Structure formats: structure tokens, C-alpha cells
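Exercise 7b. C-alpha cells:
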């Protein structure tokens, strides 16, 4: 069960268990870049592109999953309704932060990030934990036919992006009991999160981060 710490950051107890790891899902009240001077990020483009951070900080190119295995490095994605996913390889001490909106989810970004960790770090999917953070919930996310068709639906429908990314992780070989879903909707909870669909151009972004001490 996700919980909120004293810095208004949501965390997962199962990931707190790793003393070498830092992780969290920011809210509108938390300033993640101020906490980590060395934060690596991407210019996010709703793709299935994966980038290796290699200890660098700042904006590290275009893509939607940022991979890291160097001690002292932290990577992050920015979202306001899209799904943030944090991946943790407990054996090889490697991590990834993933940004998955409907385009990225349809392109398989989360499955692709697991494959990229395998290619780059030798990650076995069975060694991974995955935390799927606050995003627009199925309660609020009605899409039109042009999006529905990407997910095998038709007409107007409610889409559950968090569940879709969870399925990608299971397809990639993760154990279901190691996939942690927040169940928290960014659009329902204006007091806690930015939401693009709710606030449109006024919406800022929250950071979700994962790194190695
Ligand atoms: Zn909602």
C-alpha cells in the first residue's frame, strides 16, 4: 500500500526495504528537483524510446524511459495524468523511470523498458519490482474512438492506463505480486496532484523518481 511521507512524497513499503534505493512519487507539494541536484530527466515525447542515463544529470535526450545503474544517480519522469512507472532490479541494483500516457502505453513503453534493462544491465524480469504511481484513473479517463481503437475498443470508453501498464509488466515476465499499483487518481484529487485533463494549460507536472544511493 502506497503511503505519503513527511515531504508529501508517496512511497511503496516494498521498495523502502532496499537500503541502497531511493524512490518516490511527487505531489504538487513536493519539490523533487530541489531534493536531488543530480536529477536525470528526458524530453518526453510519448514514444517507446529508452535512454541510459549513465550517471549524467539534466535533460538527457528524447524518450520516455530513463535507465540507470550508477551509485549516486537519480532519474525521474514528469507527469500530470500520464502513468509514472518505477522499475527496480533488486539483484543488479539497476532502475528505470517510465512515462506512459496512452500513446506510450499503446507503443509498449513499459514492456520495452524491461527489455532495455535486460539488454543493458542483464536484468532478469523475475528480479524486478514495479511501482505504478498516481495517474488519471479509469473513473475519469474517458477517451474517444480514435484512442479506444488503439486498445481494442470502439466508440467512447473509459481507459485504465495503470492496468494496461501492469499487464505489460506481467507479459514481460514480472511476478504479479511484485507489481504495486497506487490506485490513486490525479484528476479526482486536485488537492494532491496536477492533472492535465482537469487543469489544461495551467497544469504543472509532478516528478516521480528512482535512484541508487
Ligand atoms: Zn478519477
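Sequence design result:
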Amino acid at each position: 500500500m502506497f503511503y505519503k511521507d513527511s515531504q508529501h512524497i508517496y512511497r511503496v513499503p516494498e521498495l523502502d526495504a532496499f537500503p541502497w534505493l531511493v524512490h518516490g512519487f511527487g505531489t504538487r507539494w513536493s519539490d523533487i528537483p530541489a531534493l536531488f541536484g543530480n536529477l536525470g530527466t528526458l524530453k518526453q515525447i510519448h514514444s517507446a524510446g529508452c535512454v541510459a542515463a549513465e550517471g549524467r544529470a539534466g535533460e538527457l535526450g528524447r524518450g520516455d524511459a530513463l535507465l540507470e545503474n550508477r551509485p549516486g544517480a537519480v532519474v525521474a519522469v514528469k507527469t500530470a495524468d500520464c502513468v509514472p512507472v518505477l522499475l527496480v532490479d533488486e539483484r543488479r541494483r539497476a532502475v528505470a523511470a517510465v512515462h506512459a500516457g496512452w500513446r506510450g502505453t499503446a507503443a509498449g513503453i513499459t514492456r520495452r523498458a524491461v527489455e532495455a534493462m535486460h539488454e543493458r544491465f542483464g536484468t532478469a524480469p523475475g528480479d524486478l519490482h514495479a511501482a505504478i504511481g498516481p495517474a488519471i484513473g479509469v473513473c475519469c479517463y474517458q477517451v474517444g474512438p480514435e484512442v479506444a481503437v488503439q486498445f481494442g475498443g470502439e466508440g467512447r470508453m473509459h481507459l485504465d492506463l495503470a492496468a494496461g501498464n501492469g499487464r505489460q509488466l506481467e507479459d514481460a515476465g514480472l511476478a504479479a505480486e511484485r507489481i504495486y499499483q497506487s490506485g490513486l487518481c490525479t484528476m479526482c484529487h486536485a488537492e494532491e496532484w496536477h492533472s492535465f485533463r482537469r487543469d489544461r494549460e495551467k497544469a504543472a507536472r509532478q516528478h516521480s523518481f528512482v535512484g541508487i544511493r
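Instructor comment: The helical segments are 13-16, 32-35, 102-107, 109-121, 145-148, 161-171, 196-199. The chain has a mean pLDDT of 97.
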